[in-house]
């Protein structure tokens, strides 16, 4: 059956430059980078920004949120589903793939308004030109679904052969993860899938191909299941394919495979068009609350939207109790694990723009208590020691050997898992902050208070005191700056620990005042009678790093006595380009050169602790010593710079953090481990820098206030934000800001 | 003036095989090794066992005890004095040196009874044979002095040219240390010296050459000051030189240079012969109290004496307040620094055989309080943190970068200085033990009690406690096994800390009971009212590692969970032969393979804590996991094996520890740093293994008891020992031991 009315204009990308990421011309070396840059995602899954003819070699992947598998002794990582959009066009036996075939033109576009991936490539073949256009989206309205339209146009009648279907060759780093794989066909719908080796979770991709013409033959080969279409395409009548596909993981018990297949079987071009509209409406609603409009350079507007979209697309589905991995849904690097990135860099965005998402981010950490408590026991502590790399139920996926020595090719013992104790506080404080921001007691009573108290309990058990001194210390830790391992009294860590214990005391006090029943329950269950005095005592005895005569706060005990070599000097000592800067003997380890914001991270988190003189002194001291070797660094330096009114460097950092996934120039290697992918923390940092920095949005006495520090390049900012039960609009100019209730107003793209 | 009666038979070595170390034939590659093996010393200085024609290239050296200098930024090291025994013989212009010239015979001998170094080499030159015989000793009766006789014999009359005198080219690792050097001659005596760059300490060598014939001409060349002797030597009348020399360092204010020169000028062959007799008598008196006679293999008897002599020769001079460096007086390696080797391995020998020496060993550590207190403050503690590598006044010479990475050639940050906190306790407990052994209250009141209390104070300040746990921990330390850095609760360290605090409490209690005046003084001065309760509390709260179900005591928290790879497996992972096994990423670091006795060191120090089942379980667990990569290891494994009655392995370890400097097969490299030299700790360990192990000598209720475990190869042992004011003789057979008072008896060599 063919669909004569299929014209392939269903998901055409927007022409509005403000809403487009685009690249023209084809660079072979950019294929993997563009897989990140042009990612599309819908919270359920991510589809890397590869071309339809790409496969495992080009890191094409349908990356699933929250599905993990460990094969053998390699590290656990998220599972990729079989890719249903693998389409290869041949002319005279030659594959039309710009990696193999001459082209005359190529463009790749991300339509940010509709989250549509578009590519258009014109191949010079024989004595004619063949143009392939493909547009795809992952359905926001119906997240297991995705759609592709694929059009072949010719300048002269040409015999075309297309193979389309599900690629059985799944890209995996530590795979294969799907075993006992099978393909099948049932009428128009075909499928391919298997189950994960570790948890026997069924992962299946279903697909249906609609075409407007041609001789179609079903295929089921070792590498692909789908269809071939042979046709002589004429200039007047392009070949159009429309592929509707769905993925299921066996978690969705309310959507069995048969139901998904029925839905796919029922689609027509018209109903797919309607589905696209629903997708766009869903996305528009997100943009409505999330967009930031600026008057300023178009590239800034585009970059800002790019980063906002990056967050919107990977937000966990409502009710999923999932969170956001450090590399989003861009693949298997970083083990698909959730880091503190979510809490420190992304949660503020969601609190302000999509507060419902925060409930899932929090729920993920509540479930994570299981793993965090186990981890604490494993290391000899009590309470909750949250994972550096969190997978299901808070399981810490971190290896004890996270870096490979480039000189010996041996794994290096690293301490990210054992010693980054600040994660617990990052989690607890994000929950406490969410409770305060949303004013929703359920956040506390549905598990949030327990997380906060258990994290505080962990710090009490980790803290040590000398018998001859009043203060307690947090010894042998790693702070945000990972180049310096096993340090004592990291400024950020100690401050986070103190705040966590204070939050625990405040949470318990709040519950006692407002929820007698729950309070009575937890008093017994958590042994608060013993615990609270320990909290009070520990909080009183924690030693914070304090500014020296020059106002500088030591990053940890002894940091300021380390060699004060410049970054260039330190870099010049590298013997190999991929050498690890940190660890016991790295070029930075015994110097003051740091990887990323650390004291400045503390300033960002606890700005009210410090006078602006101290803040400035530390920004000025640490910035020249910071390699910005993490995507978490630029935004915090930019944020603090903006808050200090140093708008020129702040703007510079804005451009850097906003461009990380656009340029793809971020660090791709740690030792010999590939760590590429998208950087949602940089996206969240971009938003924080714009909203908290340039617009200066903050809370004073439970009131939203904006004290703007706009860069000279920007004349205006307008955005919406949620706070304590109300929507506000914020309009910012150089002259000042207006924050006004906007519960019944509309702003943004759909004004 | 010539001395016709000079015949060169003054210091002829003993023919008794039991008292000789000898080597026949010449191996060029053994020259440096033999510099250690054939060392002679007299407490004031050491003379490496090189040949007279050797110079800096062959590491010839007169190594001074307790004189240090730092040049530039290289590490401080002991100073070598100009060598007065540099003698080169030429025939027809050719230098007679086995490295350059054919020989027909060569022998090198250490006469252990007289501590005389003998060499005899026959050179094939032209159509005749020329034999050089040289005997030298460092005067035990007059420690600044040394004497050499040098005889040239021929088969046919031969024209001989000899250059003798002080070698101005001093071998230094990080030198030159002597600046503004000058040579001079005053009548028959000539000299050469300069002053140290750092402390302006004058170091001078004076010499006088007596000859029996020939045409003598004074020389003063850039490389040497002395004399040339030209003569036709006949078979009937060998050429004989007798060189009397003295060294002064400007510390000996009672022996100015002029007085030394007068003494040298006054010498005749006869008075030198008399001085040799005095030297031998002094040495015989030492042997009288120190020798161990065995009935058993001659090689064991020789090896035992060799190790005893090694200790006797390097014992500090009475009143010098010096101690014994880890490489004795064999050169500049290990910075000439004093390690815990002295306290744990050598002090027991001196307590038993030469108790007066112990007063200087203790006095050295009393002076070291200055440095130990400074070091504690530097690292943020109170009390006394004794140096890992101690030079004058307890100054810690340890570099923060003690090993060079063989892959990158970069210095590696090591923690021997910062984290080996057990040294303080090793020092304190040795002093406490000396007080108990000698029953001499002056050891406490002349500074010993202060050292013990300050070391205990240090541990109290280092100990940390969690607020939710009763026990205190010693975190982030290095134990005896240096391959595992920055560990928590090292079993040995925690036990030493506890014993130190208990010794401090016992010392204070003893003084209160026996010395009211001193007690009153220190109560105020040391703030004992505040301190003693802290001592009591800390001692009660220290957590010791306890045996697991299998009886095994974990070397530190988490040790038993490390990879249980075999030593061979670990060794097979080496990529380069000189690679460091320890540090953060060494092949042993994340395994249970250890460098040296650690838990077994604890067993040796606190044997009474444990049942023999536990001792055996730990010996059997740790021995196969011990690389014995330190000269401190064999003896302790042997000692415990003997005490367990496992005499076969004990005997095996005896042979290994006793042979370390005889075979020269000990580790010569740490990374790329040369660490060769003699191993007095292995010598002390040999003695401990023989006396405390095989003879089973120990104290029970203030009584000396011997419960022997003789190896099957030995039938008898006889030795003397001092204990609490009395001399005892101990006679051991397989049937049992007799310990009897022997204050008026004589045993040993001069029976």
Describe this structure in words.
Two copies of one chain form a homodimer. By secondary structure, chain A is an alpha+beta fold. The first copy, chain A, has two domains: 17-288, Beta-galactosidase, Chain A, domain 5 (Distorted Sandwich), CATH 2.70.98.40; 318-676, Glycosyltransferase (Alpha/alpha barrel). Helices cover 33% and strands 25% of the residues of chain A. Chain A has a nine-stranded antiparallel β-sheet, with helices on one face. A five-stranded antiparallel β-sheet of chain A has the order 7-6-12-17-16, with no helix packed on it. Mean pLDDT of chain A is 95; it is low at 747-751.
What attributes characterize this protein structure?
glycosyltransferase activity (chains A, B), nine-stranded antiparallel β-sheet, Malt_Pase/Glycosyl_Hdrlase (chains A, B), alpha+beta, 30 strands, Glycosyltransferase, Gal_mutarotase_sf_dom (chains A, B), hydrolase activity, hydrolyzing O-glycosyl compounds (chains A, B), about 750 residues, Beta-galactosidase, Chain A, domain 5, disordered C terminus, Glycoside hydrolase family 65 protein (chains A, B), five-stranded antiparallel β-sheet, homodimer
